[in-house]
Design brief:
Elements (H helix, E strand, L loop, with lengths): L19 H4 L4 E4 L2 E4 L9 H16 L6 H6 L2 H8 L8 E7 L2 E7 L13 E2 L4 H14 L24 H5 L29 H10 L13 H15 L3 H12 L6 E2 L19 H4 L1 E3 L1 H13 L13 E2 L15 E2 L4 E3 L4 E7 L4 E7 L4 E7 L9 H13 L2
Antiparallel strand pairs: 1-2, 3-4, 3-13, 5-7, 6-7, 8-9, 9-10, 10-11, 11-12, 12-13
Helix pairs in contact: 4-12, 5-8
Length: about 400
């Protein structure tokens, strides 16, 4: 187990690692491979009952974990894909490789069978955060903002002696929790994401009530903190996040099949997002394998040049889950990116209700791996685990 302050990434969550802090940060769980949403608004409105339901579902899920973790670590990347897709008829896991400037990909279906060379539209989940911090890095390069600026410089919040710096938000060391449940929307119906109905005003109101100390906190993955970064970008560019990000992706990055989700695509079960939801900045982008490989190549090539600002270590952390040393290490955090200092990898993963993803790259060897999956990240083997294993194999590990 990690220290009690540690909160594991959603994409790395292991059923055996349940502790009080993790349970307090879980919003979505899966039962019989279908998303189940739980309202966790406040103790006064029944949070105790809902928390008990969450616990019961997770206790049930323990019995469904059929592969010991130590065996998973020994598997090859292809073996992981075969295991994950076993008897899953609608599985579509796309794996992209960037190597020596060349891009290639394969699509895998049921039992790891290679499918036709067709591109699909996937939710990329929290990899969205790296797009948010890429735009932030652009703003830094334009001298519109500094990573060291207090968030209060850009947000209409009550006067107070201290608010966290932007750097602490993008490195998850601000002291903010992953979520604040009373900020969740109340309309969590099937198909809607768990923060549907949240507004920027809700976030601003909550920011004013949180009183962290002026220090670097231990790493706690914070969707809330990155949603605040989205509000800061809106203030800097005087534009709502969705058109701002869509314009940035198309005009600056030249990715024509990547956008804030509008619910459309060739696959199924995309999350619904409401207009103006600040959590769009944390996980609402959809994309294709070619666009994501191009995005990975941009990171390696440092084109646009300001992307390098997000790759350097801004905070040293001890956030590698127990047993994950050979998979998704996190020794430091850049501007939104996780950094594996031992293996020279910069990476991020993502997970929504029905999708999970991974993008990792080694700039020295000029290689990258992208994994996009239409399967939940609550499975024994996540896209992040598959991707990190494949990237390690390319490195010769």
């Amino acid at each position: 187990m990690q220290p009690e302050h540690y909160v594991q990434y959603p994409q790395n969550f292991r059923k055996k690692d349940i502790d009080k802090e993790i349970l307090n940060n879980i919003k979505y769980v899966r039962l019989f491979q279908n998303p189940v949403g739980f309202e966790t608004t406040s103790w006064k409105s029944g949070q105790m009952k809902n928390s008990l339901w969450i616990l019961l579902v997770f206790l049930f899920s323990l019995s469904t974990c059929t592969m010991p973790f130590e065996d998973i670590v020994k598997m090859s990347g292809m073996e992981m894909i075969e295991y994950n897709t076993k008897r899953v008829k609608k599985a579509a896991i796309t794996v992209g490789i960037v190597q020596s400037g060349q891009m290639s990909y394969k699509v895998y279906g049921e039992n790891g069978r290679e499918l036709s060379h067709e591109e699909h539209i996937y939710e990329i989940g929290s990899i969205t955060k790296t797009f948010t911090t890429s735009l932030l890095s652009k703003a830094v390069s334009e001298n519109k903002v500094s990573f060291d600026d207090s968030i209060s410089r850009f947000l209409n919040v009550p006067a107070k002696d201290y608010y966290p710096s932007i750097k602490r938000l993008i490195t998850h060391t601000s002291g903010y929790k992953n979520f604040y449940y009373e900020d969740y929307g109340t309309a969590n119906l099937p198909g809607r994401n768990p923060v549907y109905g949240t507004t920027g005003k809700m976030l601003l109101n909550r920011i004013g009530t949180i009183n962290p100390e002026n220090r670097d906190y231990p790493f706690v993955y914070s969707n809330f903190g990155m949603a605040v970064v989205g509000l800061i970008l809106e203030s800097i560019y005087n534009e709502d996040y969705t058109p701002l990000m869509n314009g940035y992706i198309k005009n600056e990055l030249g990715l024509n099949s990547t956008k804030i989700s509008d619910g459309s695509g060739d696959l199924a079960n995309y999350w619904q997002w409401d207009t103006g939801n600040p959590y769009i900045a944390t996980g609402a982008i959809t994309s294709t394998i070619t666009d994501m490989m191009r995005y990975a190549k941009m990171q390696i090539d440092e084109t646009p040049p300001y992307l390098i600002l997000s790759h350097g270590a801004l905070a040293r952390v001890n956030a590698t889950p127990s047993g994950y040393d050979e998979l998704t290490r996190t020794d430091a955090v850049g501007a939104g990116w996780m950094i594996d200092s031992v293996n020279n990898i910069v990476w991020h993963g993502g997970g929504t209700g029905n999708y999970n993803s991974y993008l990792g790259f080694d700039k020295t060897r000029r290689i990258a791996v992208v994994v996009l999956s239409n399967m939940s990240d609550s499975l024994d083997i996540t896209a992040a685990m598959i991707g990190s294993k494949l990237l390690g194999e390319l490195q010769g590990r």
